[in-house]
Amino acid sequence: VSLCERKVLAIVQLRIGPALFLFGILTPITDGIKLFVKFTLFIIGFDGIYFLFGLLITLFCIFFPWFFLPLGFIILFDKSFSILFLLSIHLVCNVFSVFLVGCFLFSSCFVYLATMRTLFFS
């Protein structure tokens, strides 16, 4: 599917793509390998405690709403403002996780500006 999509986009844009090995069959696999290699090398240069803290905040944002769902007869939190509470917690957690990962883990001013732009538009 990915190979067909690339071929159709290349034909529509009237461009000749780079020479691909085996007609581009292995290109998505090599892209995935490159992504994982870059990701692991990217993490090694950072202080692990900040990265771990950002991941924990993100996991908290993901799993926290499950406490507000009624599971059978068990309701852990029964509040009338639960939707508003969930939205506020979700927004605050996302802002902190994006800010922590974007501002404290990178030493580039461009990453800082991109993080501020992301927080402004979210």
What distinguishing features does this structure have?
66% helix, 122 residues, NADH dehydrogenase (ubiquinone) activity, NADH_UbQ_OxRdtase_su1/FPO, 5 helices, EC 7.1.1.2, ubiquinone, 2 domains, single chain, NAD, mainly alpha, extended
Question: Would you summarize the structure shown here?
Answer:
This protein has 122 residues and is an all-alpha fold. The chain is built from five helices and no strands.
Number of domains: 2
Number of helices: 5
- The stretches of 5 or more residues where confidence is low (pLDDT under 50) are none
* Total strand segments: 0
Our Rg estimate from Cα atoms comes to 21 Å
Proportion of residues in helical segments: 55-70%
Overall form: extended
Q: What does the average pLDDT come to?
A: 70
Give the SSE string: HHHHH
Transmembrane segments: 16-37, 49-77, 83-113
GO molecular function, one term: NADH dehydrogenase (ubiquinone) activity
Membrane topology: Multi-pass membrane protein
InterPro entries: NADH_UbQ_OxRdtase_su1/FPO
Structure explained in plain terms:
InterPro entries: NADH_UbQ_OxRdtase_su1/FPO. Keywords: Membrane, Mitochondrion, NAD, Transmembrane, Transmembrane helix, Ubiquinone. One of its GO terms (cellular component) is mitochondrial inner membrane. The protein has about 120 residues and is an all-alpha fold. It has two domains: about 1-45; about 45-120. The protein is about 65% helix and about 0% strand. The protein has helices spanning about 1-10, 25-45, 50-65, 80-105, 110-120. Helix 3 runs antiparallel to helix 4. The relative contact order is 0.08.
